Amino acid sequence: MKTILTGIRANSVLTLGNYLGALLPIVRLSNKYSREGDNINIFVPDLHSIISEVEGDLAENTIRTLKYYLAAGLIINENVHIYRQSRVPAHAELCWILNCTATMGEMSRMTQYKEKSEGKASCNVGIFDYPALMAADILLYSANYVPLGEDQFQHIELTRNLAERFNHKYGEIFVIPEDTKAQVEFMGVSKPIRVRDLVNPEKKMSKSNLAENSKIMLDDTPEKAAKKIMSATTDSLGAVDFDFETRPGISNLLYIEALVNDTPLETVVEKWRGESKYGELKKQVAASVSGLLSDFQARLERISDAEVLDLLEKGEKYANEVANKKLHEAQKALHLR
Ligand code: ATP
Ligand code: MG
């Protein structure tokens, strides 16, 4: 029996990138593995949220995020556990222990930290330290697989290093999560999904990017989303082809079209290669994306807060039991108990 763990921050409404790269893959994995008897932990890392400005009400955002999973087709059974990080105090406690295991050097090398702190006059310690909290999130539940986007892979490697270091010093307490290669294989995609920014396609689409047209939000009206696709940055080469290196804009559109329709990328590229009217491709992608949004939004409407709160109550009871057991083992190993 495996444990599969995933979390998604509930800072704001999610983007199409979050949907295609995180939500949909975990929903598919969860549905597959929970039926086979594996444990699926889906948690809202609300303690991670407060490292940056939270848009709106965090508690409400949390409920909305969980509704997203349900609207994306998540099947609930006895193997699926849904919880809020802040309701399981063991996360913060193990984080402290891991802080005393990690070095300043390795934490300073984290790309996410470097990106998020770059050029800022001051940066909160949470931005620096959240990979240690993330390691706690994973190790408390002996998670084997943590399906995440490629921007988080470095943190999985850090988690493995911290766990190995702790075990080496204090005994075999933590289960080491699989390495990133195995994680990618497990997710069943040869390359991690990475939807690009619509305005600046050299970058990935990010919900924290303030430029409205750079991202499709899951609560955009289908019409608004279609407009954003129509105004996406392309190039002036005049014939559609796929190459993320040299032609990121047009490639991103092909990529989105393939993902939204669950069609192999090669099939989409074959269909559009050589097309000189980029507008035609844009119209097709705009129709696919707005269709996806209207279906998703209709399903979302039908899910109640009460349904989500009931799942959280059950999930948090389970999570506290499992996490406290592991925390106590670590505390005993350290002679704190
Ligand atoms: P932020 O700008 O606040 O970092 P984000 O859009 O990058 O927001 P995260 O909360 O960092 O979102 O990540 C949530 C999940 O979505 C992660 O699993 C991440 O890998 C995935 N993800 C984020 N952006 C994309 C993207 N553009 N394409 C595919 N997956 C993505
Ligand atoms: Mg991010």
Distance between the termini: 30 Å
The residue-averaged pLDDT reads 94
CATH topology of the largest domain: Rossmann fold
Strand order of the largest sheet: 1-2-3
Largest sheet: 3 strands, parallel
Q: Would you report the number of β strands? A: 3
Low-confidence stretches: none
Give the overall form: globular
Radius of gyration, in angstroms, nearest whole number: 21 Å
* Shape-level CATH architecture of the largest domain: 3-Layer(aba) Sandwich
Which structural class do you get from the secondary structure elements? mainly alpha
- Share in β-strands: under 5%
Number of helices: 14
> In CATH, what is the homologous superfamily of the largest domain?
HUPs
How many discrete structural domains?
Answer: 2
Under the CATH scheme, which class of the largest domain?
Alpha Beta
* Oligomerization state: single chain
